[in-house]
């Protein structure tokens, strides 16, 4: 950002300096735009005596002598009223090299008037004339111009007058034709180097790399507006060939840059154009005379590529507006309009010595600076969003970890309780269970008596109850509800058969259904108490037991065809009411409510509907 402000400040100062200079008055300055011209060969030391042709300056001789490579002499005359006072002389434009004579005396000569030619067209020339060079009355200016017809050789206007006025005009010319180009060159090198480093540090951002290549190639081409000799090349053709190759390659890489900026790829077209760029550079090195003298064709193709890519980007920016696209498109639009002037000037369709595209360098700086700032802001917003998302994810993960640890803690406590319960059950089985079986065996082997029979029956009930506790405790972790009900069904089927009661059992959907130890025990005790009531109090000849898992609900039904009872009688709580209270309590612990349907002479129906997953311990 500081660099951007620095160069923008320099550009504004240069513009202000140029605008602040007042144009010289016609009284102090005479501009000569009429001259005579005659062509000569490369070895011409003096102008020919005949063949002079009147010309209007600025003059490009390729239009008059289209195939003339060599020398053209220009002769201008003006009247000097007072030769005692110094006079300023400004030669505005010469292409390519020149020697300047005043009244037959040499006052300037380029280093190379034959190949490799010097390059005098980049800046005007100022001279201060005094006696004895300056004569009162008519004075003659002769300018020997060396050039090649392929590169618009010619001669510009001449200004003569008061030194201050002429020098002010000279400084304006230097500013517009040299200093602005120097500024443009500096901007191009800085931007190209900056984006090249950005690309090298972040290779996946190819848009930066292609912009860097395009800018550096353009900077190489723009050196054409500053160089005063053709080093390191041996001829003007070689210089111009390599220069137009850089121009063409800059247009191609600029097109690829705009495609990448739009996040698009055209592999075939890009491959063809990049191959053509490589071919242009090879041709510039191998056949510089052909390449240089035919540069117009390469310039036309390069210009078409540049304008097509730019207009396509402008259309894209308008169709899909975004701040960075619109700012860059606005800057590019001004550059496109300016480049039209330079394109026409390049082909000689307009007469001027000033190329204007260099003036738009601040726009390139502004446009790409905004692009960088926009992308930086977008990246920062993404980073901030990522940080917020990451913080949320961390908080979520922390919360989940806390919940997991809490569940593991609860599970550890449950496992500890289960372990203690298993130890207690094993002790009951090994101790109390063994004693109970021994007592039953002893009583069964003793002489039969009514008291012994009743005692054995009571002990067997205790044995069955102990088995129920042991079964639900030791097998509930790895046995489903169907497995837990099988022993109960077997024992009670035998009991009902011995009592002359027809028992019918229906088990449906219980495989892989688990209620957990506590709920399984409650369910089995509920069934046991219900069946005990049927056996002891109902006087039934048939009992139906149904345990079904249907529509995510566990349905438990126990129905008999016994004598039934009146549920509204107060004696109920005294004659078996304790059993019903126990059944209702167990039903409540199972998360359900016991439904009782009975009447005198109509049997009893107990119904229970529960959600196996309501307590969180069931695993259907």
Our count of helices gives 13
Number of domains: 3
Which structural class matches the secondary elements? alpha+beta
How big is the Rg? 54 Å
Helix content estimate: 40-55%
Low-confidence stretches: 1-26, 571-576, 616-620
Neighbour order of strands in the largest sheet = 3-2-5-11-8-9
Output mean pLDDT. 83
Domain Histidine kinase/HSP90-like ATPase: 518-612
Catalytic activity: ATP + protein L-histidine = ADP + protein N-phospho-L-histidine
Enzyme class: transferase
Transmembrane segments: 182-201, 208-226, 238-259, 271-291, 297-315, 327-350, 356-377
Supply database-style keywords:
disordered N terminus, Heat Shock Protein 90, 13 helices, 620 residues, single chain, five-stranded mixed β-sheet, disordered C terminus, transferase, two-component regulatory system, alpha+beta, Jelly Rolls, signal
What does this entry look like structurally?
The protein is of the alpha+beta class. It has 3 domains: 33-161, Sandwich (Jelly Rolls); 186-384, no CATH class; 475-610, Histidine kinase-like ATPase, C-terminal domain (Heat Shock Protein 90). The chain is 55% helix and 17% strand. It contains 13 helices and 18 strands. It has helices spanning 2-20, 163-201, 206-222, 236-261, 267-286, 288-293, 295-319, 323-346, 361-445, 450-474, 481-498, 517-538, 577-589, and strands spanning 29-32, 34-40, 53-56, 59-60, 70-80, 87-91, 94-95, 97-102, 105-109, 125-129, 137-147, 154-155, 158-161, 502-508, 542-550, 553-560, 595-598, 604-610. The chain has a 6-stranded antiparallel sheet, with no helix packed on it. It has a 5-stranded mixed sheet with strand order 14-15-16-18-17, covered by helices on one side. A 4-stranded antiparallel sheet has the order 1-13-6-10, covered by helices on one side. Strand 14 (502-508), helix 12 (517-538) and strand 15 form a beta-alpha-beta unit. Helix 9 runs antiparallel to helix 10 (450-474). The chain is rod-shaped, with a radius of gyration of 54 Å. The model is unreliable at 1-26, 571-576 and 616-620 (pLDDT under 50). The chain crosses the membrane at residues 182-201, 208-226, 238-259, 271-291, 297-315, 327-350, 356-377. It catalyses: ATP + protein L-histidine = ADP + protein N-phospho-L-histidine. InterPro entries: 7TMR_DISM_rcpt_extracell_dom1 (IPR011623), Galactose-bd-like_sf (IPR008979), HATPase_C_sf (IPR036890), HATPase_dom (IPR003594), Sensor_HK_TwoCompSys (IPR050482). Residues 1-27 form the signal peptide. It holds the Pfam family 7TMR-DISM_7TM.
């Amino acid at each position: 950002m500081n660099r951007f402000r620095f160069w923008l400040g320099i550009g504004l100062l240069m513009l202000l300096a140029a605008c602040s200079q007042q144009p010289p008055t016609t009284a102090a300055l005479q501009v000569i735009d009429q001259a005579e011209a005659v062509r000569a060969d490369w070895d011409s030391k003096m102008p020919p005596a005949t063949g002079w042709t009147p010309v209007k300056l600025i003059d490009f001789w390729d239009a008059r002598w289209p195939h003339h490579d060599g020398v053209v002499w220009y002769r201008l005359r003006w009247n000097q009223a007072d030769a005692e006072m110094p006079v300023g002389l400004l030669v505005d434009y010469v292409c390519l090299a020149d020697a300047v004579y005043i009244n037959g005396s040499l006052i300037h000569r380029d280093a190379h008037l034959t190949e490799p030619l010097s390059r005098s067209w980049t800046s005007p020339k100022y001279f201060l004339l005094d006696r004895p060079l300056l004569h009162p009355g008519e004075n003659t200016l002769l300018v020997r111009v060396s050039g090649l017809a392929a590169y618009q050789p010619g001669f510009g206007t001449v200004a003569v007058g008061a030194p201050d006025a002429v020098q002010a005009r000279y400084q304006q010319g230097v500013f517009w034709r040299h200093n602005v180009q120097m500024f443009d060159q500096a901007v191009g090198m800085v931007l190209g180097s900056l984006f090249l480093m950005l690309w090298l540090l972040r290779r996946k951002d190819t848009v930066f790399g292609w912009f860097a290549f395009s800018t550096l190639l353009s900077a190489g081409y723009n050196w054409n507006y500053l160089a005063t000799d053709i080093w390191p090349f041996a001829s003007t053709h070689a210089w111009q060939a390599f220069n137009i190759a850089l121009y063409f390659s800059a247009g191609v890489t600029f097109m690829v840059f705009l495609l990448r900026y739009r996040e698009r790829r055209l592999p075939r077209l890009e491959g063809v154009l990049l191959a053509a760029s490589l071919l242009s550079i090879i041709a510039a090195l191998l056949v510089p005379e052909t390449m240089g003298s035919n540069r117009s064709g390469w310039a036309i193709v390069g210009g078409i590529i540049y304008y097509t890519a730019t207009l396509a980007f402008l259309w894209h920016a308008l169709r899909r507006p975004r701040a960075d696209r619109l700012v860059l498109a606005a800057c590019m639009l001004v550059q496109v309009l300016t480049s039209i002037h330079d394109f026409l000037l390049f082909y000689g369709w307009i007469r001027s010595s000033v190329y204007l595209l260099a003036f738009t360098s601040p726009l390139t700086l502004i446009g790409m600076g905004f692009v960088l700032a926009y992308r930086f802001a977008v990246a920062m917003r993404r980073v901030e969003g990522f940080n917020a998302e990451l913080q949320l994810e961390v908080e979520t993960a922390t919360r989940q970890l806390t919940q997991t640890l809490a569940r593991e803690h609860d599970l550890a406590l449950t496992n500890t309780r289960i372990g203690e319960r298993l130890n207690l059950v094993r002790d009951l089985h090994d101790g109390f269970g063994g004693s109970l079986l021994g007592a039953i065996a002893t009583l069964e082997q003793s002489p039969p008596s009514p008291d012994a029979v009743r005692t054995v029956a009571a002990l067997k009930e205790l044995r069955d109850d102990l088995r129920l506790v042991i079964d639900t405790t030791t097998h509930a972790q790895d046995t489903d509800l169907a497995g837990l009900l099988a022993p109960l069904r077997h024992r009670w089927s035998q009991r009902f058969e011995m009592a002359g009661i027809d028992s019918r059992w229906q088990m449906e959907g219980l495989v892989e259904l688990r209620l957990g130890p506590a709920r399984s025990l409650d369910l089995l005790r509920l069934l046991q108490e219900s069946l005990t009531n049927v056996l002891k109090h109902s006087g039934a000849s048939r009992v139906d037991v149904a345990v079904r898992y249907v529509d995510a609900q566990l349905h438990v039904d126990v129905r008999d065809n016994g004598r039934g009872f009146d549920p509204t009688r107060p004696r109920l709580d005294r004659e078996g009411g304790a059993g019903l209270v126990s059944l209702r309590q167990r039903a409540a612990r199972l998360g359900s409510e016991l439904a009782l349907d009975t009447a005198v002479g109509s049997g009893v129906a107990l119904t229970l509907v529960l959600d196996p997953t309501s307590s969180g311990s069931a695993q259907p």
